[in-house]
Amino acid sequence: MPPKVDAFRTSDVLKGRQAMPEGTFLHYLPGNTWPLLVSTWGLDARVYERDEELPLGPGDGNVYIILGGCVLQERFPFGAGFASTRITRFRGVGELLGEAKLIDPEATVTTVCLTTTWVMPCSVKRMNLLLRRQQEAQLALLRSLEDRNRSDEMIYCTPTRSPVQRVGGLLLHLAGIAGRTNSADPGQVTILGPTQRDIADALLMGVSTVENAVRTLRETHGVITSRYRQFVVTDLLALHDIAMPS
């Protein structure tokens, strides 16, 4: 089941008391700037349910900051008529979505919620004004986008690595940006939302190849368990050792 809204720890997030995933916009954003964003857009924050699409179409006028949950984004570099060439990416807590609108208001990216997702919509016009006036906020966004690019290259653009390493690397990434811990078993991290088909699309692999890799991670290495739209990482350190070059 998707997480409940109260699982987002809304008070901690809005008061800046919840640590954000390393490398994200909110991770880099100075602590004294976050209250300004909350006072400006906090009351507009809302929850989208699983499979709902964020309004990031042409002329929508907002960018979005993920405060809780996980989304899947798809871009079509040759146009929507060439769906087979789509680029699929996962985005999670602390990230700013729709950044292209800051330079092109007509930019669009298909963004679907994989779980119940809590987002803060921010006016493109006012966000650009904030970034011009707050150099540290601008730097936070640039740093996060550079980190995202490097992370994307390492996760999605390494076809010479084995399927187990590539699938393991993506699950390790998702555990960091969208994973949920359980106080009863803090050593486990639950990833809700992505299907094996989603993972195959993102990594440009066949579904059967992903299925075999998941089975190996589950049965041979014993580092995950899996159900439909749910992966539980039972040993993060071991998964890291499998997925990352030594």
Head-to-tail CA distance between termini: 36 Å
| Average residue pLDDT | 92
Class based on secondary structure composition and strand pairing: alpha+beta
Helix segment count? Answer: 9
Determine the fraction of residues in helical runs and give it as a percent range.
25-40%
Q: What Rg is obtained from the alpha carbons, in whole angstroms?
A: 18 Å
Low-confidence stretches: 1-6
Provide the spatial order of strands within the biggest beta sheet: 1-7-2-5
General form: globular
How many β strands by DSSP? Answer: 11
Order of helices and strands: HHHEEEEEEEHHHEEHHEEH
Describe this structure in words.
Strand 10 and strand 11 form a beta hairpin. Helix 6 crosses helix 9. Mean pLDDT is 92; it is low at 1-6. The protein is of the alpha+beta class. It has helices at 10-14, 25-28, 34-41, 124-133, 135-156, 163-178, 196-203, 207-220, 236-243; strands spanning 46-48, 62-68, 71-75, 87-91, 96-97, 110-113, 117-123, 180-182, 185-192, 224-227, 230-233. Strands 1-7-2-5 form a 4-stranded antiparallel beta sheet. Strands 8-9-11-10 form a 4-stranded antiparallel beta sheet. Strands 4-3-6 form a 3-stranded antiparallel beta sheet. It contains 9 helices and 11 strands.
